[in-house]
Amino acid sequence: MRIYYLTKLYSEYAKGLIERGEFEGMVYQFLSKNKEKTSISHWKEDDYEDFLSWFYQRLHTSIDSYQETGASFDAYINSILRASAREFRVRKITNSVTEYSAWSVQVPDMYVYEEAQVYSHDITENILSKIAIAHKGRKNPKQILTLILKCYYYVSDDFINRVAKYTEIDAKQLREMVDKLRKMRKQRDDNLYNMKERIYCQYYRCIVYEKRLGYIQEGTVAYLKLKRRLIKARQRLDRMRERMMKIRTDATNKEVAEVIGISKGAVDSSLHKLKNRWDMLADKAMLN
Asked: Residue 160's CB: how many other CB atoms inside 10 A?
């Protein structure tokens, strides 16, 4: 299909009668108002407008690449439109698949789910009050403080406000201790956060590959190629999850000791007693 108007415009541009910016604008305006004269006239108006907005950035390069070797400028523009339209369609489908996959994901089907388990405050406080009782029924607030700081990664401000009374220090001081630990372990925590972000990205990549497979005929070269990508993506996701599981989220006993201002041996002893107390409570629960 020949667009003689564009050929005439190019001739005037080549002779220097039309400035470059004006020429590009006139070509764009013609394409915008004469969809029926292009090679993609069957497209819907909305899709065609979106395509032209995306295509305009390529128009500059396309003009520079044109050579008058037999094919008219209108035929050349039509061939560029057809090639660009195919790429635009592929990009649009890919984006739609990605968006669909992101919104349709369900937690039970996730390849990775790293959120901390949530316990009710009443259960947590009940556990703390029981495991921190030393011999003769006396409570040991230092043991509770040690345990809270050890698990600082999962401690929230609300939790601090509720359990501070068991440590015999005010919530403000306890919060300062937790914040100090977080500053000490900032690099490790940042590494863990970045690892989680990479895992989430890899997970969504797997979902996108799976969804795109549904648009490709089985047995074709494209299908087999994409399926191999999916297999490799899943394998990489599994390896990433295994690496993340090995990253510790609890503070070291030495770090806890430094924050409290006691010896590492005292922290070791407190945590050991808490563990023994927990084991005893668990055994009694099983017997009952």
From this structure: 19
Q: Please give the structure tokens belonging to residue 219.
A: 């047995």
CA-based nearest residue to 59, from 18, 93, 28: 28
The answer to pTM > 0.85 is no
- The enclosing H or E element of 243 equals helix 221-245
CA-to-CA separations, 9 to 15, 39, 61, 128, 233, in angstroms, rounded: 10, 19, 17, 82, 50
- pLDDT surpassing 90 at residue 254: yes
What single-letter amino acid sits at 198?
R
pLDDT(263) > 50: yes
Determine the Cα–Cα distance for residues 49 and 201; give it in Å rounded to an integer: 31
Asked if 24 and 61 count as a contact pair (C-beta separation under 8 A), the reply is no
Residue 109's contacts (CB-CB under 8 Å, 6 or more residues apart) are: none
